[in-house]
Amino acid sequence: xxxxxxxxxPEIIGFACSYCTFKASEMAGSLRMKYxxxxxxxxVPCSSRxxxxxxxxxxxxxxxxxxxxxxxxxxxxxxxxxYFTRRKVAAxxxxxxxxxxxxxxxxxxxxxAEGRRxxxxxxxxxxxxxxxxxxxxxx
Amino acid sequence: xxxKQIKIDTIKDALNEFLKDEQHLVLGFxxxxxGVRHRIFKSSLEHFSLLNPFFDVNGALYLRRLFSRGxxxxxxxxxxxxxxxxELVKLNQIEREGITAVSIDCxxxxxxxxxxxxxxxxxxxxKDYFKxxxxxxxxxxxxxxxxxxxxxxxxxxxxxGTIWVFPYTGKGENFLSLLSGELQExxxxxxxxxxxxxxxxxDMTEFAKDISKCILCRNCKAMCPVCYCIDCVFNGDEYLPxxxxxxxxxxxxxxxDMPPGKELFHMIRMYHVSQVCVGCGSCEEACPxxxxxTKYFKGVSERLQGMFSYMSGRSFDEDIPYLTFLEDxxxxxxx
Lengths: 139, 335
What we know:
- Chain A is an alpha/beta fold.
- Chain A has five helices and four strands.
- Chain A has helices spanning 2-8, 21-30, 52-60, 81-98, 115-134, and strands at 12-17, 39-44, 65-70, 105-109.
- In chain A, helix 2 links the parallel strand 1 and strand 2 (39-44).
- In chain A, helix 2 (21-30) packs across helix 5.
- In chain B, 27% of the residues lie in helices and 16% in strands.
- Chain B has ten helices and eleven strands.
- Chain B is globular.
- Chain B starts with a strand and ends in a 28-residue tail after the last helix.
- Chain A binds chain B through residues 2-3, 6, 51-53, 56-57, 60-62, 73-74, 80, 83-84, 86-95, 97-101, 106-109, and chain B through 200-204, 207, 233, 239, 241, 245, 248-249, 251-254, 261, 263-264, 267-268, 270-272, 274-275, 299-300, 303-304, 307-308, 321-322, 325, 327, 329-330, 333-335.
């Protein structure tokens, strides 16, 4: 039963910075914009709080995709947190590339005012993964 | 480059002179009946060896959280050990003051696990250790950084078998002044620079197959010179799936591995050491199951360091990439 449900709908874990991306998701909610159920957000104080170990663990526990999202570079509440995030996640992507699982990880910048952009990014990623996941399946 | 041409006895005499002070120590190699081992020499040098054809552990492991408190220590180690030392200095795990790091040209090493390694100790000429490279560790065979060009000074061996000492920093010059002899222009060295490696690539199936033997003893973590956190994320079982999480995984993916979480453990550790990994192969040496870990750790870390044109341990002045940033870079990392 579980298997059948998950075969069609991917599950995505998102690490969202509480000052920008998480606020954007709240804004999207208040504007009644919809994004897929499969996207689960984890609120972190700053995107640089995301130790790549979190991402690797999420992938190993069965997430079909993981994204790390924070403020645009230069807008960080902690001045330069997201610059460090960029380096860390870029390196993690390179490592995932080595193991040929690069498409599971995404990084994007969404500011608190960009509710629409958040929905677009998240649904885009969801649909992409869903398409790949269901390719070659009959039912 | 200018350096001093010396004899092995010159070094021994100079170090013996240096060790007369109570507070002075030398970390180097000692020969004994059953091979060559690391040893910290105090007051005098006995059975000192410049080169070590056996690899058991990385010497930088002994230096972690070392704050010399007034004593003077000279390290005479392999380049990979000196590189690990300089990474630990950058990570504030070792106080550089009082330590003079001297890297020695390395001609490769055999695994200490290899039972037949006694035969090698009889060879007089170091560069004849490996006439046939069959016995050499795979890690050393593919190592491109065996030149003694890191640390404060370097001891290098010329093509004609002569020994040379080159200073790289002020401390290195102090070390050089201990040795008698005149500065001269150097001859051609026996070990030359090698080309950059090809990009390493693999996939999860191959990785899972290779590490399926892992028993999660975490010896690789304990023996890695640069994996130093006191509070490791793998202390306790927070990061290793248990009970419910394991059952959940079976329902999601249709299978699970036993013991659970070994891929997770190695992937996380691989990422955590990626920027400082020197590719010495201590993890492989420590593995009771004989898993070829270095292939993955070295391959991945070379790619991740290459992204930032960084090389672990190359110099004391370069910042570790994760600890610094440029405002305008990595445009293709975002999507």
